[in-house]
Design brief:
alpha/beta, Rossmann fold, seven-stranded mixed sheet, 25 helices, 17 strands, about 40% helix, about 15% strand
Length: about 650
């Protein structure tokens, strides 16, 4: 059913991209204005990635007008800028469910729409995926286009250049649109640049260029090569595309990505005339375009909570405790005040990891390597060989991209690189692509690795100090997104004894062994079990590796039931515990062992409390597990 809105009369006529293909250029300009209005209004209700989406409104309209999507494949790199795309592709009625439980994903998602040919929430994958689609197209003998939209930030990742190098060598028909929203590559754009871009993308220019190429073939080898390079470098000097030409792409641009009079002719030329080889269109855009609060503070409007459209003020609750991210940043500063060998490294997420705080205090000791997690880890390994103490702060989900480097460049060489993993556990609205699920498992299997997880913000401060003190092997420290639990922070962090946990509550029947920030839920579960007459011990493991063998053995010997709790996948902390129990024979005496982990499924976006309830990692789920293990009725645990 079409939505009707007096503010969006043209948008109201568009249910699918085919509906806008008959629009005139002037109508498309009005449609873009209305699409921007609709995007702002929707995100003000749901929260989400506003700035990036506003930056591609005109580009979205132009692509869907010129190309025959979904037959022509359109891939949005990262996908967080695809909100306008979702509105135009049959999802407008659901756009105000964005990032809500049961609603639309905040990223492109194959299962959501045929207009999302590739799911993307980690960056720099679009050109590789697009090249795969282009090869498949040619193997089938089809003629459809493949269009990849990639941001200048995503172009900092090596994978993008690997893909471009491969595409250039294969000479496959592929269209890459570089969405340069940071002016990090482009010179100023204007009428002359637009004219040149239209010229070099035109059929007449390409025909003339082909004639010149054929003539050059008649020259002796060295002269042919010189003539061909002369034309390419001449265009590169005028347009700035020499790098992309060297990778085998036909470069067009830069053009104004918000001016449909510039965008439409170029896209039409590319659609109609470029039959062979890859092409790159360089479009310069501005994050937050058309909404003043977002334009003026693009960093703050990258990801937003609900906000007032008129004022731009975001609705944020009062924090009852400091965020783990802030505690980490401040603790690292505190340690670095005493040790000049400490350096901080992040991969394009300084504010998201707390490294921005460190960078303000120690700019010369802080390094943002861009979206290049692999490089960041090996860069840290190099620093470690020279006696420095690198802290590599990367979200758990993004560290996955550097696993080979963690194994070969850090672990095998036993280099003291400190891997700091923010966003461990469920992250809520970003969903399956951003949950920190797997780091306990993928790091726990590496020899010599020390793994820590704080139960609260005070423990985090102590574990930062512990990481500083570990100087003979690598270590990993994980902590969740959001606020701590409200405990008093110690003035100074103190190094903990490696591989030793602690007991917070003594009991006799049920033992709950927690690893990480679910400890408060474990204590709440113990209270509920106590009320049912079941004496319960609660212990905080602190370390997944090396494991506190003495603590595990005591809990197994002295209790009827042992439950492990972790904010991680199967194969993690529980695996370390059960391995120890099995080899020590402690499973041979009738112990009822129950591991509680994240379920073996990809959990969609929702409120974190709902995600943890689904996993059974809240107090009610822990109580139900204990009752079931003892043969009691567990159905009332959530009552």
């Amino acid at each position: 059913m079409t939505i009707r809105n007096t503010k969006t009369p043209l948008l109201d006529l568009v249910d699918w991209p085919e509906d806008l293909r008959s629009f005139t250029d002037e109508q498309l300009k009005q449609l873009a204005d209305e699409l921007r209005t609709e995007t702002i209004d929707a995100v003000s209700i749901t929260g989400g990635h506003l700035g990036a989406s506003l930056g591609v409104v005109e580009l979205t309209v132009a692509i869907h007008h010129v190309f025959d999507t979904p037959r022509d494949r359109l891939i949005w790199d990262v996908g967080h800028q695809a909100y306008p795309h979702k509105i135009l592709t049959g999802r407008r009625e659901r756009i105000r469910t964005l990032r809500q439980g049961g609603g639309l994903s905040g990223f492109t998602k194959r299962s959501e729409s045929e207009y999302d040919p590739f799911g993307a929430a980690h960056s720099s994958t679009s050109i590789s995926a697009g090249l795969g689609m282009a090869v498949a197209r040619d193997l089938r003998g089809d003629r459809n286009h493949v269009i990849c939209v990639i941001g200048d930030g995503a172009m900092s990742a090596g994978m993008a250049y690997e893909a471009m190098n491969n595409a250039g060598s294969m000479d496959k028909r592929l269209i890459v649109i570089l969405n340069d929203n940071d002016m990090s590559i482009a010179p100023p754009v204007g009428a002359m640049s637009a004219y040149l871009s239209r010229l070099i993308s035109s059929k007449s220019y390409r025909s003339l260029r082909q004639i010149a190429r054929e003539m050059a073939k008649m020259f002796p080898g060295p002269l042919e090569k010189t003539a061909r390079r002369a034309e390419e470098y001449a265009r590169g000097l005028v347009t700035g595309g020499t790098l992309f030409e060297e990778l085998g792409f036909y470069y067009i641009g830069p053009i104004d990505g918000h001016n449909l009079d510039h965008l439409l002719p170029v896209l039409r030329n590319v659609h109609e005339g470029l039959e062979d080889g890859p092409v790159l269109i360089h479009a310069v855009t501005r994050k937050g375009k058309g909404y003043a609060p977002a334009e003026q503070a693009a960093d703050k409007y990258h990801g937003v909570s609900k906000f007032d459209v008129v004022t731009g003020v975001q609705a944020k609750g009062t924090a009852s405790a400091p965020a783990y991210t802030k505690v980490f940043g401040e603790s690292l500063i505190q340690e670095a005040e005493r040790d000049e060998r400490i350096v901080g490294i992040t991969a394009a997420m300084p504010s998201g990891t707390g490294i921005d705080l460190f960078g303000k205090r120690f700019p010369e000791r802080c390094f943002d390597v861009g979206i290049a997690e692999q490089h960041g880890v090996t860069f840290a390994a190099g620093l470690a060989t020279e006696g420095y103490k690198p802290f590599v702060a990367i979200y758990s989900t993004f560290l996955q991209r550097a696993y080979d480097q963690v194994v070969h460049d850090v672990a095998i060489q036993q280099l003291p690189v400190r891997l700091i993993m923010d966003r461990a556990g469920y992250v809520g609205a970003d969903g399956a692509t951003h949950h920190g699920c797997y780091d306990i498992a993928y790091l726990g299997c590496l020899p010599g690795m020390v793994l820590m997880a704080p139960a609260n913000e005070a423990e985090l401060r102590h574990m930062v100090a512990t990481a500083v003190a570990i100087d003979d092997r690598p270590c990993g420290l994980r902590y969740p997104r959001g606020e701590g639990v409200g405990v008093e922070l110690p003035a100074v962090g103190e190094a903990l004894e490696i591989g030793k946990g602690r007991v917070l509550r003594e009991g006799t029947t049920v033992a709950i062994l927690s690893y990480g920030a679910r400890l408060q839920e474990c204590l709440a579960a113990a209270e509920q079990l106590q009320a049912k007459g079941l004496s319960t011990t609660v212990a905080d493991a602190r370390f997944a590796k090396p494991l506190d063998v003495d603590l595990v053995s005591r809990l197994a010997k002295e209790h009827e039931v042992l439950i492990t709790i972790e904010e991680g996948s199967i194969g993690g902390f529980a695996t370390q515990v059960v391995h120890q129990l099995a080899h020590s024979g402690l499973l041979d005496r009738g112990l009822k062992f129950r591991p509680l982990t994240m379920p073996d499924i990809f959990v969609d976006h929702d409120k974190p409390e709902n995600q943890y309830a689904l996993a059974g990692l809240d107090a009610a789920g822990i109580v139900a597990t204990a009752l079931s293990a003892l043969g009691h009725d567990a159905s009332a645990a959530r009552a």
